[in-house]
Amino acid sequence: MKKKILFVINNLKGGGAERVLVNILNNFPFEEADVDLLLFWKDGLFLNEITDEVKIKNIFNTIPKNDLLFLLERIILRMILLFPALIYFFKLKTEYDLEVSFLEGLPAVFIAKSPVKQSKKFAWIHTNVVHNATRNFRMEDAAYNRMDKIIFVSDEIKEFFMKKHPRIPQSLLTTLYNPVDTNQVIQQSSEPCPVRFDDTNFNIVSMGRLSFSKGFDRLINVADKLVNGKGLNDLKFYILGAGELETELQNLIRDKRLSSHVILLGFTRNPFPYLVQAKLFFLSSRFEGFPMALLESKILAIPSVSASCSGVSEAIKDAFDGFIVSNESDLKFIDEAANMIYSLYNGDELNKIKKNLADEDKYNCNIYKIYQCLLSV
To answer: Which residue ranges run through the membrane (predicted)?
Structure first.
């Protein structure tokens, strides 16, 4: 008999966890399970990419552009969490074998309070819960203590989780790296790119949500040191992503007189035609869970410079297929990253790294390990 599985996430707006979920759902062995996806808000650029095999259900429609209305809906959602059986009765109407919270916070609380007593309950953790602390620690701690399994995208964020939630038995914790489809990355990198880089420039690509955790303000300060401080006028940083700090970052770029050197390109479903044109990929994050973009850069043989945050040392080997710089403080990161990029700009280390990447076995996480975990309940 086919299993019945429910995934829960806030929405499908552009982000790493959302992209991973789409990949897992679209390749799911549907001959073995019926899959539902519950969205708190039926919104996001990935919404149209979900296979028709998945039944999408939602509590609210698109995320309101009005901040007050959005706040009101969040308050209503928190009230719903007091009586989640209403959503199961009116929206879901299914007795599930497995319920999966695919994001930290409210999805985990929702699953933990499920009225389906016989179902197994899994939580997926994509972030460093110490650095990305929430205001609802007690509620989330209680939720995680009700889970049958907690899945982490890297060993490092599992270690941080254990420090934050020491009461949870370690036997419930497991690491499953995010799946990357090597062939798909290579195939998508050959698609037409809306922006053609000038290959006489030293082009650097970064990607991610325009949020504090991704550290793009630090990237701009690195660019300032290199362009205005060291005179590297052919240096170009291209940032792929959207988010709440866009206006603030644009203002910082203007204030530093870097409008010709740091370019915000917005969110794109397919970043690989941009990435494949770069001489370097740059990860400026303050916090990460498991940096998928480093793996995707490796697949395309693009060297990387990365802050030393969670999961990075599991994705690249320092000075072999990329470079890792200190993340001890913003100032130290900016200094070390600027010095590293300046050294790569003037030396031949990039060619050595590219050769290592070309010779290295391509990362190809077996997505079926994930399905084996989910279907073993």
So the answer is: 68-90
Is residue 196 domain-shared with residue 305, that is, in the same domain?
Answer: yes
End-to-end CA distance of the chain: 13
Residue listed under structure tokens 């972030």:
127
Q: What domain range is 321 assigned to?
A: 183-359
- Which residue do the tokens 């599985």 mark? 5
Determine the Cα–Cα distance for residues 306 and 365; give it in Å rounded to an integer. 21
Q: Specify the amino acid at residue 217.
A: D
Closest CA to 194 of 279, 271, 250: 271
Cβ pair 106, 79 in contact under 8 A: no
For residues 51 and 181, give the distance between their C-alpha atoms in angstroms, rounded to a whole number: 17
CATH number reported for the structural domain that contains residue 69 in this entry: 3.40.50.2000
368 is a domain residue: no
Residue 134 has a pLDDT of 63
Rg (alpha carbons) of the chain, rounded to whole number: 21
Question: In terms of domains, do 238 and 305 share one?
Answer: yes
CB 120 within 8 A of CB 148: yes
Residue 222: which of 234, 211, 230, 214 has the closest Cα?
230
For residue range 50-89, what is the model confidence (pLDDT) as tens digits? 999 999 999 988 877 777 888 888 888 888 888 888 888 8
**Vertex 336 angle, CA 330 and 339, to 5°:** 135
Q: Are residues 229 and 83 in the same domain?
A: no
- In a shared domain, residues 8 and 143: yes
